[in-house]
């Protein structure tokens, strides 16, 4: 279990457990800060002294290996797991270079030291400053509160009102600061993964460039690097989407904190001051307690807690409530007081003081106190309501929009990510949702409606449904398989759950997913890969019933579910699932009689070089397809290349850039006609023409390229074997998302030789992927 999410609603309770979670986040950031400082120190030693290079490399490797990112929530995506494991992988690569003595180029300072220093000073430093403000404001708030509560009730009403206003303003300021601090803590926890790893990735590319003896290792590293860059890019994209959702939730809670109070098993909870009587002549003292009450059992518990003493928690006290009575100011020299009596201490009331009159009213109502004013405590989250329904008009809207998009704009860059003008979107949606005007709207031939207006209207309609298309009931079940299991088991689980949806929901989902699959097939032109479509439609098709930070952290898994639907829509919607829910399946080993699979690294499986075939594709009309800035950026090549390129050559995580050409450090030369300025270049994923972070999603025919023959050392053509078929002679369970799972007798179509020795590529049931060569027989 990683770090617990910090709920914005808890800022208003400021409970002991909330403070514990805040301290856990602060401790993790301090650990990250120390790690970065150590990493920077080691990096500078590498550049400074050749004689200490080997020792510095070992220390650097140990620093990378021993650090592990903590994550928010209960699970990570595959991309995050690869990022978490990346530091250990970097450590392994560095150990193989221990004997080398070459000096790193001066560019290491720009690609490694400065980005990390900037992240530590600007990001982590900003959090430290926020912490100081938060601690200072905590001290000020509770000191002022205690001083305020000690005011005599006999003072003039005007003085009391002024004091109340001052406390209220200070409390609001404290809550504002608390909300911002919690938001910043969670943002930096998510940001640090790619901000820390990306500079290290650039450093390693420079390292292999300047070490000729590490040439062979650099070729293997290049494959891993490309996969990791996609993992980082996907994580960055999901971070941007998650951050906007978190900020929206924070603003909702800021506007009305009571309406977004989290549901729990306590009827009422919060801080109260409890009067503790002492023997004469010492009088009494007032001690702050965190109190919780359950109306069903009438159990009242309270825990002494002092914010200013480091958050020390005292022993809990529990009793059964007998009655509650309001205390007037003529019987006690304090305001906002009421008495409680416990069943085990009859006749001995406990006097408590609330923070305000409103607070006392809430407690009196919850405790069924005498003279309590009736107030409305209906604070349930307002459900999203709208006129949109899954009826005949709804299906007509979706079909008309899809038909118009596929007719007019299937190749538009940023399709579904570029949003339309809000007023036009609302006007179109109102026309479509009106049964009198719906059939009169011509989307395919009318120039009045832009494609981005149509796509935005369709997304708005889906978001306006009373319940998301994939339902509240099944939301949690859809999320579970996205967090664990093999690729095959995830598909089977989603397949099973889709057929549990109501018939209209399933029918609408099938129409939409089939369309999105068609959009992804044109990713070469519209740049909307399966991963990008998942980012756009994850929050649209799925959403939790209760909006919390914990639920928003699962947004990335919603995207994965949508990706699974798009990549496997034929199987999911055209075939019936198994009768029972499939359990998560771990990566299985080969059957007893099956031959061993080919692997290029002893004891460890080589990760596939994702989209290596697409690397050599030229951009088609790069100048004529520049898209406007999208609402969810996919990044840019600026974030991947060196911060300050030299005139002749500039280093990047991909290799050396010479003018407009990319020279791969494995020896391959890919020509790129990229005349776009730096700020207009497509993202790494789109620039490389990668349809998906999952290579199995690539269904386009692969072109012919020349690669070094491992056996002869000469170049050979990897020729496409048109319409060649093969039959499986052994069963196989995929160990990676780029591979196919199959049973004995499965027939593969369009089988080709793969670049990786010992592997073939083929298509099975509409899905393309890798096949062990010694598991099949050509027909």
TrEMBL record:
Q: What is its main location?
A: membrane
Summary of the function given for this chain in its UniProt record: GTPase-activating protein that catalyzes the conversion of active GTP-bound Rho GTPases to their inactive GDP-bound form, thus suppressing various Rho GTPase-mediated cellular processes. Also converts Cdc42 to an inactive GDP-bound state. Essential for PTKB2 regulation of cytoskeletal organization via Rho family GTPases. Inhibits PAK2 proteolytic fragment PAK-2p34 kinase activity and changes its localization from the nucleus to the perinuclear region. Stabilizes PAK-2p34 thereby increasing stimulation of cell death.
The protein depicted here goes by the name Rho GTPase-activating protein 10
The residue ranges of the SH3 domain are: 721-779
Looking up SUPFAM superfamilies in the UniProt record yields: BAR/IMD domain-like, GTPase activation domain, GAP, PH domain-like, SH3-domain
Q: Where is the composition biased (Basic and acidic residues)?
A: 622-632
Which lineage? Eukaryota, Metazoa, Chordata, Craniata, Vertebrata
Swiss-Prot/TrEMBL keywords: Cell membrane, Cytoplasm, Endosome, GTPase activation, Membrane, SH3 domain
Q: Which BP terms does GO give this entry?
A: cytoskeleton organization; negative regulation of apoptotic process; signal transduction
Report the domain of life of the source organism: Eukaryota
UniProt lists compositionally biased (Low complexity) regions at: 639-651
SMART domains assigned to the protein according to its UniProt record, in alphabetical order: PH, RhoGAP, SH3
InterPro entries xref list: AH/BAR_dom_sf (IPR027267), BAR_dom (IPR004148), GRAF_fam (IPR047234), PH-like_dom_sf (IPR011993), PH_domain (IPR001849), PH_GRAF (IPR047225), Rho_GTPase_activation_prot (IPR008936), RhoGAP_dom (IPR000198)
Q: Give any GO molecular function from the UniProt entry.
A: GTPase activator activity
State a GO cellular component annotated for this protein. endosome membrane
A Pfam family this chain is assigned to: PH
Checking CDD domains in the record gives: BAR-PH_GRAF_family, RhoGAP_Graf
Q: Which residues form the Rho-GAP domain?
A: 388-573
Cellular compartments annotated: Cell membrane; Cytoplasm, Perinuclear region; Endosome membrane
Annotated PH domain residues: 265-372
Q: Where is this region: Disordered?
A: 584-605, 622-651
């Amino acid at each position: 279990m990683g770090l617990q999410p910090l709920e914005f609603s808890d800022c208003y309770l400021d409970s002991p457990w909330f403070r514990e979670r805040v301290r856990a986040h602060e401790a993790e950031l301090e650990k990250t800060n120390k790690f970065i400082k150590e990493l920077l120190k080691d990096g500078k030693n590498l550049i400074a002294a050749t004689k200490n290079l080997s020792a510095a490399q070992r220390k650097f490797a140990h620093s990378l290996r021993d650090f592990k990112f903590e994550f928010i929530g209960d699970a990570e995506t595959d991309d995050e797991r690869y990022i978490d494991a990346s530091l250990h992988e970097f450590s392994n690569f560095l150990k193989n270079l221990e004997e080398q003595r070459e000096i790193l180029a001066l560019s290491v300072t720009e690609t490694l030291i400065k980005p990390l220093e900037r992240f530590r000073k600007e990001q982590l430093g900003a959090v430290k400053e926020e912490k100081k403000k938060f601690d200072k404001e905590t001290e000020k708030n509770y000191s002022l509160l205690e001083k305020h509560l000690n005011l005599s009730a006999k003072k003039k009403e005007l003085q009391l009102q002024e004091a109340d206003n001052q406390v209220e303003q200070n409390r609001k300021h404290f809550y504002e600061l608390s909300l911002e601090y919690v938001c910043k803590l969670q943002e930096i926890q998510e940001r640090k993964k790619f901000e820390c790893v990306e500079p290290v990735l650039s450093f390693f590319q420079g390292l292999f460039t300047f070490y000729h003896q590490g040439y062979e290792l650099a070729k293997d590293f290049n494959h891993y690097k490309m996969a990791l860059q996609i993992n980082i890019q996907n994580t960055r994209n999901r971070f941007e989407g998650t951050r906007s959702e978190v900020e929206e939730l924070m603003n909702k809670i800021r506007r009305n904190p009571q309406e977004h109070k989290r549901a729990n098993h306590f009827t009422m909870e919060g801080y109260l001051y409890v009067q503790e009587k002492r023997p004469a002549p010492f009088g009494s003292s007032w001690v702050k307690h965190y109190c919780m009450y359950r109306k069903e059992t009438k159990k009242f518990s309270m825990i002494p807690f002092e914010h200013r003493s480091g958050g020390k928690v005292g022993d809990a006290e529990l009793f059964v409530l007998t009655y509650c009575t309001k205390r007037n100011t003529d019987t006690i020299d304090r305001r906002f007081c009421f008495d409680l009596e416990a069943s085990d201490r009859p006749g001995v009331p406990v006097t408590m003081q609330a923070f305000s009159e409103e607070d006392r009213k809430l407690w009196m109502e919850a405790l069924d106190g005498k003279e309590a004013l009736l107030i409305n405590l209906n604070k349930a989250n307002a459900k999203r309501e709208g006129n949109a329904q899954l009826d005949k008009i709804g299906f007509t809207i979706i079909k008309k929009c899809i038909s118009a998009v596929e007719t007019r704009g299937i190749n538009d860059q940023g399709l579904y990510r570029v949003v339309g003008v809000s007023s036009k979107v609302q006007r179109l949606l109102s026309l479509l949702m009106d049964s009198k005007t719906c059939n009169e709207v011509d989307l395919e031939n009318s120039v009045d409606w832009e494609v981005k207006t149509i796509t935005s209207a369709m997304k708005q309609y889906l978001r306006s449904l009373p319940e998301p298309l994939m339902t509240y009931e099944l939301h949690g079940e859809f999320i579970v398989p996205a967090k664990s299991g093999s690729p095959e088991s995830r598909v089977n689980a989603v397949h099973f759950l889709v057929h549990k949806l109501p018939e209209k929901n399933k029918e609408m989902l099938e129409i939409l997913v089939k369309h999105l699959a068609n959009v992804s097939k044109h990713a070469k032109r519209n740049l909307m890969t399966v991963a990008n479509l998942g980012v756009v439609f994850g929050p649209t098709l799925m959403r939790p019933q209760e909006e919390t930070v914990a639920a928003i952290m699962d947004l990335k898994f919603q995207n994965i579910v949508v990706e699974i639907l798009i990549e496997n829509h034929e199987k999911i919607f055209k075939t019936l699932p198994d009768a029972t829910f499939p359990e998560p399946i771990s990566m299985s080993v080969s059957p007893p009689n099956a031959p061993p699979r080919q692997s290029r690294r002893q004891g460890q499986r080589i990760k596939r070089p994702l989209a290596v075939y697409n690397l050599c594709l030229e951009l088609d009309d790069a100048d004529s397809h520049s898209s406007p800035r999208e609402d969810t950026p996919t990044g840019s090549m600026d974030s991947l290349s060196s911060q300050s390129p030299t005139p002749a050559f500039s280093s990047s995580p991909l290799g050396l850039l010479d003018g407009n050409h990319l020279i791969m450090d494995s020896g391959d030369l890919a020509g790129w006609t990229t005349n776009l300025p730096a700020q207009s270049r497509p993202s790494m994923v789109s620039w490389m023409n990668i349809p998906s972070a999952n290579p199995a999603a690539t269904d386009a025919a692969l072109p012919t390229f020349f690669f070094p023959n491992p056996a002869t050392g000469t170049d050979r053509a990897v020729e496409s074997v048109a319409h060649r078929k093969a039959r499986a002679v052994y069963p196989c369970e995929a160990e990676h998302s780029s591979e196919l799972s199959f049973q004995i007798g499965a027939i593969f179509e369009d089988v080709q030789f793969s670049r990786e020795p010992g592997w073939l590529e083929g298509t099975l049931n509409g899905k393309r992927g890798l096949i062990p060569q010694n598991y099949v027989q050509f027909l």
